[in-house]
Design a protein that fits this description.
heterodimer, A: 123 residues, 37% strand, B: 476 residues, alpha/beta, FAD/NAD(P)-binding domain, 8-stranded mixed beta sheet, 6-stranded mixed beta sheet
């Protein structure tokens, strides 16, 4: 076993965050991949697969809504939990810390806009 | 404005460019420890976001890929819980080739017993690293240097390493210059000095005539023992072992497991070889290892100076001082303090300019808040000293922590305080606030009373001090 690994290992299919649960932290994928899925009318809808360096669950840091999707390990994945308190304490002194989170969120908004435009043009 | 002043001002404006970083500005960084590398990394990152191109040169004569002392920065080598998280958020993932061991818990050892304080998330959240390649006798290096890793991040952003030893710093017509032993002198628009308190840097800065005065320091003591991976797994495990022992002038002692070595780190006033020997022979330390085991000869040792009080005026027009020859945290999380101050300094320089007034307004408040927090830290360690001296206090502390660790769902007030003090994850002010909570004080009084009353009761002959919730094989 590699003793130099930070974070926690999640096994294939293990749930990291569950849709509908309250969230008090976010995660950074250290190694491996995770998949985000959502459930509508009992059906599972795959959203995206995220790899090393991806930030997940960040929306719960900024709003008080429940988790919007379920994220689970795709194969073996290692993730580090980021405390809300640690992050917000630092953001007070260094607002640029959220730049990367904002970049990641704006990339997803772009992807969603593209997807919406594609599906509307097909229908 | 008088005629002489006007003339001087006109002369300066003719020779000194505007006090801001523009496309093509030159930045010199002396020292490539965490403060220097973080500064270069964040400065270049922000410059790229703003669409500016800067020429950043880092002076570093040491090769971090060499074993100690040639590549070592003489430090306990802990990347704190908060820094691990913040770097991950920044997109800087610490690889397993650099993190020699993930730490998921602390074991507090005292003469009255030991207790393990684990992370509630069951995660490896603290990283143990070697700043250089490793101790003097490292042969087959399996891990890389932490400082080399950060340096590579700065280089990947566009910084250039100058492998020269700096032997002087000066101001010529308002522009800082770096002089090397090879006789080269180079002018910069901005000079950032992060050479460390264990170098000639403070003396060179004092000679610059910018009003800088070096920090007040004391000596710590660090020793490395080769134990091998299996022995480390069986004894220290993935815990950092912390000791509150009544040894004169010792504020704090820790044994940190790394790849194949155990790093012994003693903090206090004027730590030396004698105190290190006394520590290694203490029964609480011997009990961490099997009774039949003889500790090997040390691999290397050093007594680095550490910063006790911030430097005076660590900034001037076009000059910034970072790292432990400027402002850092007292005893703990020096790498985290380097990250904080370097990032704030980079933002101040590129967004607000490189004049003294810009640094005073946009860099100094954050740096000074660390120094103010250190005053609370001094008080925290004064309390710790009293706990080290008084057995009744140690009994109460052990009982309160052990019960918190044993009972699922119980509020872990003392555990959280100890975790924050040992890991350096939270500001000392936040730690003090936790201890002033009525729930904490009430539980502490009850623990002091019950633990000391129990100690007065007669004990069976085979009674041993408690080792509650501690790592297997690591305790009495």
């Amino acid at each position: 076993m590699n003793r130099g690994l930070l974070g926690r290992v999640y096994h294939d299919g293990e749930v990291i965050v569950r849709q509908g649960d309250e969230g008090h932290c976010m995660y950074v994928v250290q190694d491996g991949e995770v998949e985000a899925v959502t459930y509508r009318e009992g059906r599972e809808i795959p959203l995206r697969v995220l790899g090393e360096g991806a930030i997940i669950g960040e929306m719960s840091l900024f709003d008080r809504e429940v988790r919007s999707a379920t994220v689970r390990a795709k194969g073996e994945a290692r993730l580090l939990t980021i405390d809300k308190e640690t992050l917000l304490r630092r953001v007070q002194e260094d607002p640029s810390l959220v730049l990367r989170i904002v970049k990641s969120m704006s990339r997803r908004v772009r992807e969603l806009s593209d997807e919406l435009a594609r599906s509307r043009s097909q229908s | 404005m008088g005629p002489q002043l006007r003339a001087a001002s006109a002369r300066n404006s003719a020779t000194v460019p505007a006090a801001r970083l523009e496309d093509g500005s030159r930045v010199g960084v002396v020292g490539s420890g965490p403060a220097g590398s973080f500064f270069a990394y964040f400065l270049l990152d922000l410059a790229e976001t703003l669409g500016r191109s800067l020429d950043v040169e880092i002076y570093e004569s040491r090769d971090f890929c060499s074993p100690a002392p040639a590549g070592c920065n003489m430090c306990g080598g802990i990347v704190s819980e908060s820094l691990v998280q913040l770097l991950a958020t920044e997109g800087i993932l610490l690889p397993s080739t650099v993190i020699q061991r993930g730490i998921d818990s602390y074991v507090l050892h005292m003469d009255v017993g030991s207790v393990r304080i684990g992370t509630p998330l069951d995660e490896m959240r603290v990283g143990a690293v070697h700043r250089g390649l490793g101790p003097r006798d490292v042969k087959d290096a399996k891990w890389s240097s932490f400082d080399a890793f950060l340096q590579s991040k700065a280089v990947a952003r566009g910084a250039r390493i100058v492998r020269s030893r700096v032997d002087g710093l000066s101001l010529v017509e308002g522009r800082p210059q770096v002089h090397t032993v090879e006789g080269d002198s180079t002018s910069y628009d901005l000079l950032v000095v992060a050479g460390g308190v264990n170098s000639d840097t403070p003396a060179m800065l004092e000679a610059m005539g910018i009003g800088y005065r070096g920090p007040r320091t004391t000596t710590a003591f660090i020793r490395e023992y080769f134990l091998g991976r299996d022995m480390l797994d069986r004894t220290l495990g993935s815990s950092m072992h912390v000791f509150l022992l009544n040894i004169p002038h010792l504020e704090f002692a820790a044994i940190i497991p790394k790849g194949e070595y155990a790093t012994v780190c003693l903090l206090g006033h004027g730590m030396d070889k004698r105190q290190a020997d006394a520590f290694m022979n203490a029964p609480e330390v011997r009990a961490c290892f099997p009774t039949e085991m003889l500790l090997p000869q040390r691999s290397c040792q050093c007594s680095p100076r550490i910063n006790l009080q911030a430097a005076r005026r660590p900034f001037a027009d076009r000059v910034l001082v970072l790292g432990d020859c400027g402002v850092t945290r007292l005893y703990k999380d020096g790498i985290g303090a380097a990250y904080r101050t370097a990032k704030i300094a980079a933002a101040a320089a590129i967004l607000h300019g490189i004049s003294e007034s810009s640094f005073r307004r946009h860099f100094w408040p954050a740096a000074r808040s660390i120094e103010i927090d250190n005053r609370i830290g001094r008080f925290t360690f004064a309390v710790t000293r009293q706990i080290q001296r008084h057995r009744f206090a140690r009994r109460g502390l052990l009982r309160m922590t052990a019960l918190e660790q044993q009972e699922e769902g119980r509020l872990r007030r003392m555990s959280q305080v100890l975790w924050d003090v040992f890991t350096g994850s939270a500001p000392y002010g936040a730690v003090l606030t936790r201890t002033l909570h009525p729930g904490f004080l009430g539980r502490l009084v009850w623990s002091l009373a019950s633990a000391n009353l129990q100690a007065l009761l007669p004990k069976p002959k085979d009674h041993k001090p408690p080792s509650l919730g501690a790592a297997p094989g690591a305790l009495k």
